[in-house]
Amino acid sequence: MSMNVVTLLYLVASVCFIQALKGLSNPKSARRGNLFGMVGMAIAILTTIALIVKQAAWLGANLPLGLALVLGALVVGGAVGAFVAARVEMTKMPELVAAMHSLIGLAAVCIAYAVVSEPEAFGLVPQDAVSSNFIPYGNRVELFIGTFVGAITFSGSVIAFGKLSGKYKFRLFQGAPVVYAGQHLINLMLAIAMLGFGILFFITQAWLPFIIMTAIAFVLGVLIIIPIGGADMPVVVSMLNSYSGWAAAGIGFSLNNAMLIIAGSLVGSSGAILSYIMCHAMNRSFFNVILGGFGGEAAAGGAAGAQEQRPVKSGSADDAAFMLGNAESVVIVPGYGLAVARAQHALKELTDKLIEKGVDVRYAIHPVAGRMPGHMNVLLAEAEVPYDIVFEMEDINGEMGQADVVLVLGANDVVNPAAKNDPKSPIAGMPIIEAYKARTVIVNKRSMAAGYAGLDNDLFYMDKTMMVFGDAKKVIEDMVKAVE
């Protein structure tokens, strides 16, 4: 196979990846997008195997072993991927995404170490100068970038996985931010040290500075993520997604592999754009996310407000069902509590019952509701909620004042009027779903505990609001029975 054919096949695979991104931008075309992604990846893998065979003259007796290792990795990786995909629940999708990001980062680090160990095997050293083992300076820069970004992605994604799972007692895996004095200064000093050892590797091509640089990057990845609270994981997940893409692109430049460069750039740029959108939806600084500490200020600022105790109006699931059944227009606002309770299927059943009674039911989705970008959309799609009744925040906020009832399920900060009405609030300026404008509001929560920002929610104390306490799935199932 000539390099022209290889380049052409990589280009075809890249077009498939672009079509995959386009398809995944809309729930109706998501299946087609996934199909394009799988086809593109299959083309890329087969082309890479063909490249290995093309190097048979250089590999010599090692070719059978090399092919066996590649095919074995494909079989094992494919089997593990199929097993995980078949067993993972939709509510666990954020953890799965974080785990995938960690593997991409680790793969970038492993490839970089393989290149530094045997650069001649990757075509970085001319065949007549193999004994010198000299890596061109440009490739050293690319290896440094790919390695430190990959290492940060790996360790940061591991911490994100722990925070998202919520089942580990290890302090760094807790949802609450881990903050300490001089946090940003320590991160800055580590970054400078990492850069210094990277420059030393660039000059000497020595193993020791390369290893130390990698170790510092692993530590830095942990320190960047631990100050970020669990409720802010949508931004973290999209940011780590971007990191993983840039790590792959950096290694692609080192290997002169067009496929890695294009695919990595697509992932990196799309992740960065999504991170910006997420930050805008939370009125946060994009650079604050990159430097770490995201969410810590809000949690600290709102701690005092969480102590205030005020009377609320509470009711039962039957009361809520009566209000919903007699309304003409209902807007449902799902939040992380819906995912925790795994109540999406019960909610779909409630939606169907209300529609049968002639109620106009719509869903309002906040961009950062849940623990990853599009978390609520994924849950509703898995429950087969029709796409045409699911609306983004900016598309439905203008109609909230005409809604008879707004049903808030497990959401807190994303419906807090303080973001609009209190300029001193830690969440001031954050775009919210304006549930407070509806004629009646029903809020389901386990308790009156504050949301991630640590703030009391004035919506809960309004005369128009009725609180229904309990597990979301149980409460919704009771509503279904009452509506019937």
UniProtKB/TrEMBL annotation:
Any Pfam family: PNTB
Domain NADP transhydrogenase beta-like stretches: 7-481
Gene Ontology CC annotation, any one: plasma membrane
Domain of life: Bacteria
EC number: 7.1.1.1
Enzymatic reactions: NAD(+) + NADPH + H(+)(in) = NADH + NADP(+) + H(+)(out)
InterPro entries in alphabetical order: DHS-like_NAD/FAD-binding_dom, NADH_DH_b, PNTB-like
GO MF term (any one): oxidoreductase activity
Main localization (coarse): membrane
Transmembrane segments: 6-23, 35-53, 65-84, 96-116, 143-164, 185-204, 210-228, 259-279
The family this protein is said to belong to: Belongs to the PNT beta subunit family.
Function: The transhydrogenation between NADH and NADP is coupled to respiration and ATP hydrolysis and functions as a proton pump across the membrane.
This protein's name: NAD(P) transhydrogenase subunit beta
Lineage, highest ranks first: Bacteria, Pseudomonadati, Pseudomonadota, Betaproteobacteria, Burkholderiales
